[in-house]
Amino acid sequence: MDTKTTIIGGLVAVLVATGGLLWLTQGDPDPTAVDTDETPVVEVEENGRFGYIERIDAVQFFEDGEHILVGEIEMPTPCDLLEHDHLVRESFPEQVHISFNVINEADMCAQVITPARFQITVTASEEATFTADFMGRDVPLNLRPPAPDESPEDFELFFKG
Fold it and tell me: Comparing C-alpha atoms, which of 49, 69, 50 is closest to residue 59?
């Protein structure tokens, strides 16, 4: 029985060693190979880097046929420069669409929330309606009338030189 026990013990040891080696070496031998049974998961941040911007707030002044919109949007870094453009659709009342975009050509920049102020002047009737998009994504434009003591000059713009 000693010989039989020794043979069985040896076989068990070989099986355990083989199983251990298979377990340690399991995985894809070719890291570039694609597993056709499994769909790759690609995590994409919804709405990109600026997905947190869900609304743009501004104060709307109207004087002498001009709308002046002033406000600010918080940028994730001081290197993010806010730019805007607007389109006045010829109708009555006019429909004004404002597009906000961000330029950042910095290789490295500190992650510090920084307000970016804007001032937009549009010639249109007092009844004009406004819509906006931010980086190509439609966002609500929340316009509020100025307080009695507010003027556009109260909102200083800081431009980087």
Answer: 69
